[in-house]
DNA sequence: CTGTTAGCGCGTTCAG
DNA sequence: CTGAACGCGCTAACAG
């Protein structure tokens, strides 16, 4: 484990010198080119091992023009379990192809997202997997135009061609809302993410469609969109429950809203008149400890790791076959209803 | 937004050609070198904009020898909120220095971790932030020896010099155990991660020390180490509760064990004889919904985002000052006890 | 103010 | 079987 230069890693030439051969021969040995005399090969191998040599991947990718073996992952908030599971799913598939995942956390800021994508492209990532925060996807379209494959997760591409993995947002929301209706609820509130988010609008559509199927129409006063964090959802839910004619059930379009609504309902429980029925709760996204809340809970579940894995597979296959020629693919991950007991 | 070559991004020479200057001049303009005639500058700028040019960061880092602007983050399981928060904290600091985070998820596999670190070094990351899974840290020592700064999070370096950020494991565990003792518990079980993990052993030490302070000695029959996932912890806790002389309280060394133990206690509640007191629960790590479990719960809380941010800051400052010369620093994040009501 | 030369570390091409 | 030359895209150093 000697060092040949101040603090730096050894280079191919260091190995070659030590083995008494040219850099070219060393390169061949290290890439398992058979055209080398066994004796020479051994000398080079020994030298490389002694120096702890590892080829400089930066130089390789520049030379080979093949990209960097890196994939950018663009999400809004890694602390949200939805995104961290997605990240894990993506990474678990990509590592099998020798690819590594670069985190891009945008914190909901569209400008940061634009910069991030541009930077990833400048870094010559082999591809990008993104869950765009807003409706404007031109920065992603630009990446595609420059030859960087993009896979969208949980949102469809708008205005350009790209592979994507979606959740059955409409169907899941419809099923959950229908379940509440089946139980006799007629005034069902809706809590969701900002209207610009695709999943939010699709889930709202599913909710409204289920109401329509039951001969009801969505009541705008019972719909609150725009909550991103649980505490915002708690406030929104509390407001709904304080209405003159409050909803008897709530449907939430994601885990942040469900958790927030749960807290509101629990607080409301204390103030409730005797005999008054508890507000029913349903939501999109399963989450850890959902079974432990002491409240009946209907959740729209799906395999969120699989969402990431599917995105990773789409990108990996796209990289294998090269570029945009093949038509874009869309994968829809199915949902199912889960009931947690009170 | 024209393209000069098939699918590839435009190069500096494409810009130069289009502007009718040499590559060198174009380079100067794009790096805001003042030594350029304003008119020329405008021509180059226009050409770059028209082509959508972005400098190839791979080539730049090779040329400048300054590293890649990437930092490797080595953790065992990104789906664990502890690690995803850490990742977010790290990334939030690093982006401010123009650095990006590369995920390395090892899934507890020491071999995968070795490979991962070697690969990150080969990719010429500027530094590594790691939460090593096992006791063997030679791969990290090797990275340091090759000039790659390493910062450890939540474990101290073993056998080499590196900055690290620790949680007050001993103090937190001691305080939580003392709290249980104050409440009159004398038979307190312990559930923890595998003994090889530093936090696990430190927290066990804190637990044992608190018992000793109360004139008690740790009872090996009440100690279960090795649980990594909640379901394993549930089984271990269930076994403890089924002992002839079961513990009246449990202390868990991390959130996975606390959640697992919670489920065991809840199940046990149903089978409990009337009048028998409920098993008390305390644990290390705060977590979402801890307040909603319907069980009194004492948790050792700390700012887990700050853990990541501190690690990021240590690395960033190390990169600024360059290399290992300065003595290694150790930051300890304090803990506090949080009580959640039943 | 601008262009030429040279080379970061590696691998392809083509001669020895 | 091995080596010398060339270039990936970019920029520091030195011309002009």
Instruction: Give the mean pLDDT of chain A.
Output: 91
Query: Helical content of chain A, roughly?
Result: 40-55%
Tell me the number of structural domains of chain A.
3
CATH superfamily of the largest domain in chain A: Response regulator
Low-confidence stretches of chain A at least 5 residues in length (pLDDT < 50)? 1-6
CATH architecture call of the largest domain in chain A: 3-Layer(aba) Sandwich
Quaternary status: homodimer
Number of helices, counting only DSSP H or I runs of 4 residues or more of chain A: 12
Query: If interface size is counted as residues with C-beta under 8 Å from the partner's C-beta, which chains form the largest one?
Result: A-B, 57 and 57 residues
In terms of DSSP E residues, the strand content of chain A is 15-25%
Shape of chain A: elongated
Main sheet record of chain A: 6 strands, parallel
Q: Span from first to last CA of chain A?
A: 62 Å
SS class of chain A:
alpha/beta
State the strand order across the main sheet of chain A: 2-1-3-4-5-11
Number of strands of chain A: 12
Series of secondary-structure elements of chain A, N-terminal to C-terminal: HHHHEHEHEHEEHEHEHEHEEHEE
């Amino acid at each position: 484990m000697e060092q040949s230069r101040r603090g730096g890693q050894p280079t191919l030439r260091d190995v070659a010198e030590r083995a008494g051969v040219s850099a070219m021969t060393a390169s061949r040995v290290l890439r398992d080119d058979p055209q080398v005399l066994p004796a020479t090969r051994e000398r080079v191998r020994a030298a490389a091992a002694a120096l702890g040599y590892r080829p400089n991947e930066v130089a390789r990718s520049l030379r080979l023009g093949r990209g960097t073996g890196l994939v950018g992952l663009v999400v809004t908030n890694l602390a949200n379990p939805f995104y961290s599971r997605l990240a894990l799913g993506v990474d678990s598939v990509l590592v099998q192809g020798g690819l590594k995942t670069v985190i891009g956390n945008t914190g909901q800021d569209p400008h940061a997202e634009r910069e991030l994508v541009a930077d990833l492209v400048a870094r010559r990532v082999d591809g990008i997997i993104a869950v765009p925060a807003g409706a404007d996807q031109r920065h992603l379209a630009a990446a595609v135009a420059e030859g960087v494959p993009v896979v969208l997760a949980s949102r469809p591409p708008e205005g350009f061609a790209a592979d994507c993995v979606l959740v059955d947002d409409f169907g899941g929301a419809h099923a959950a809302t229908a379940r509440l209706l089946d139980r006799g609820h007629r005034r069902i509130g809706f809590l969701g993410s900002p209207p610009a988010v695709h999943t939010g609008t699709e889930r709202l559509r599913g909710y409204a469609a289920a109401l329509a199927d039951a001969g009801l129409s969505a009541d705008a006063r019972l719909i609150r969109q725009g909550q991103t964090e649980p505490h915002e959802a708690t406030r929104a839910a509390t407001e709904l429950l304080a209405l003159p004619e409050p909803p008897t059930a709530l449907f939430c379009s994601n885990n942040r809203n469900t958790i927030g609504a749960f807290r509101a309902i629990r607080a409301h429980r204390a103030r409730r008149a005797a005999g008054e029925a508890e507000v029913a709760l349903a939501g999109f996204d399963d989450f850890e400890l959902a079974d432990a809340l002491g409240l009946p809970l209907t959740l729209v579940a799906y395999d969120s790791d699989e969402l990431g894995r599917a995105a990773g597979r789409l990108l990996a296959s796209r990289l294998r076959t090269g570029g945009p020629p093949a038509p874009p693919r869309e994968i829809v991950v199915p949902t199912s209803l889960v009931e947690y007991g009170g």
